[in-house]
Amino acid sequence: ESTWEHVAQAPPDPIIGVTDAWRADTDPRKLNLGVGAYRTEDGKPFVLQAVREAERQLSADPAENKEYLPISGLPEFCRLSRGLALGPTSVAIQEGRVATVQALSGTGALRVGAEFLSTHLPPAHPRIVYLPNPTWGNHKTIFAKAGFQVREYRYFDPASRGLDFAGMTADLASAPPGSVLLLHACAHNPTGVDPDAEQWGRLLELTREGRLLPFFDMAYQGFASGDVDADAAAVRRFAEAGLELVLAQSFAKNMGLYGERAGALSVVTRSKEVAARVESQLKLVIRPMYSNPPKHGAAIAARVMGDPGLCALWKEELRGMAERIKAMRAALYDALQQRGVAGDWSFVLRQIGMFSFTGLTRPQCEQLVSKWHIHLTLDGRISMAGLSAASAPYLAEAIADVVS
Ligand code: PLP
Fold first, then answer.
1. Residue limits of the Aminotransferase class I/classII large domain (predicted)?
2. Residue 339 pLDDT greater than 90, yes or no
């Protein structure tokens, strides 16, 4: 008898499960709208030219080797990452009060950040994190594993398929002081709904008044608008207002480095001395977890960000990805209009980033899968990146059928 006889079968991951079902589907019309990764017009993964060129340079560089990185990662990568997020004129960076460590993409940054907070928040602060409802599924588990009590704030309004700002602010106003407030920096996953500039201003005030600690998850910088600076506006505004904050960055989507696991965790503090102590403690979190991060993805990202030519090429390609996604929103909206599908679908145009939260019910989603071979998560989220000019009308036809 096995030692593990009592071990129960774990449920499959809901998102990875969608891709498995799509792969097993033999219908030629099949579509994968579950995956959170960019696809070309032909439905293929996309390796950016800037990344290919950086890899070519790296492999030709005799100074490159396979030695371990420091515990906190590649210093140049950390420096460039926080610069990308906080901007070229960041006072916090100029004053040296930002602690940054390389992380295993966005997930790893969140996990190390949560662990650090759990250990080092002042003892009198509650270990409570406020997450938007809904949010990226992994957030809950990440913070729960780090010992946080997880609470939700209202976010998505199903009626308008937009932001429930009144609900959001009411929930945050009642959060105990010292609670951690998780905010999606841009391109909220899964809803595609972001606060506007005025609402961000109000959120900043609420954060300050309620003495909440903002933790920005920035998994889509540049992917929302096509412009890395525009997409960082909220984070920069909080930092420039003098707030302390935590920031998780990922290069999975905006540089297409998914499997390379390139990301960063920054803690913006009030002084250089505090930042140095925080960084020393972040290393103590990392060392017993995985010792030090992988080199290749960070080396690529550092080359791309650090070389003016490659950086310009990257930003152009990033804009191209964002533009294609916006074009798919327009194509889907037009096709829905042409079919006269009931209801107001203008939210498809308004929502931002990779995903659209359609409001389709679970039975409707199940029908999309079984009858139309369109694979998606059953919460009604569709990845706009999985659409093409050819498949958008097919999706509209299928939606028209399941909502009728
Ligand atoms: N945060 C959000 C909101 C995401 O959507 C994702 C990925 O889908 C991540 C974090 C983490 O991604 P990764 O660990 O691949 O960088």
1. 29-399
2. yes
